Amino acid sequence: MSINRPAVTALAAALCLLTAACGSSSDDKASDTTTEAAASKTGYPVTLDNCGQKETFKKAPSRVVVMNGASVAEVSTLLALGLGDKIVANQQTYGMSEVVGRAAAIKKLPTGDVKLNDAYDIPREAMLGLRPDLVLSTTSYGFDEKNGFATRDQLKDVGANSYVSPQGCDQDTSKMTIADSYQLLRDMGKVFNVSDKAEKLIAASEKNITAVSAKVKGEKQPKVMVLFSNMSMGGNDFSSVVAKGIYNDILAKAGGSNAFENASKTSFADLSKEKVAATDVDALVVIAYNDPNPAAYAKKLLKEFPQWPAAKNNTYVTLSDSMYLGPSNDLAVEKVAKMLHPDAL
What we know:
The protein is of the alpha/beta class. The chain has helices spanning 6-19, 25-42, 73-80, 102-108, 124-129, 152-157, 178-191, 195-216, 246-253, 273-277, 294-304, 309-313, 329-340, and strands at residues 46-50, 53-57, 64-66, 87-90, 134-137, 161-164, 223-228, 238-242, 257-258, 268-271, 283-287, 316-319.
């Protein structure tokens, strides 16, 4: 465009008014550069591919809802990253934790004062009424319309992003490992622009686990029974026995093996008392899910099956959130290793 050609200038101005596309190419380039610089400085936008769905975050969420999902993975991850003040409603709690102060911190979080459904979780209308900008669910079940939950599309319609934790897309956590806990940390680090903190937590965990695993390397691997205390999940006497999942990864790194790994193709085995009695169990790991006295449950089992090596040696440990998906798996590895190989550690 030349200032010596007024007719051309006038025409261009008219086109600018009609198309709202004024501005020279140099202006466009400058604008693009400024936008890129701003995005680089803020860390946004951030896009995650989550269960085949693209979730784009233009800024850090400030109204986060954490669904129950019989988990503490998501709320513990947010707290570990210093993001508790972003939570407007949390439904996750185990009542205890291997991390000092975490259980108390979870208890202080807002619940949203919503009426929960039969799954002890947040139904659709209550969820939408919380006006979230991010909803976290352990598995895709939390966004299943058939069960009365707000779907991911419905949340998107009201401006809320959603996120399903690693291995939760098909509601099968049997392939979950400690690496998935790290993925959850990394994803939340990106979403909230605290990736440096996430990577520091991951590095510290990896360092602790590597050190423990090195000390128990070459030792005989005791057979461990892992189960949730006082929990019924099936029709048999022992329906909360762990078969597969992140628990086995923790056991392996602690120098142990799962006595019931082949009892089921899924995460949990539903076992009869006879099957449990006929299996050699060298040690017990009892996971407390809102059970104030998991040690009493462990002692009860050892008394019930005196033929176990675990009973003869009184070998057991009680754990809670460190044995689950979340930021503290290194604590579980260390505690289990100390139980199994006290002389090595």
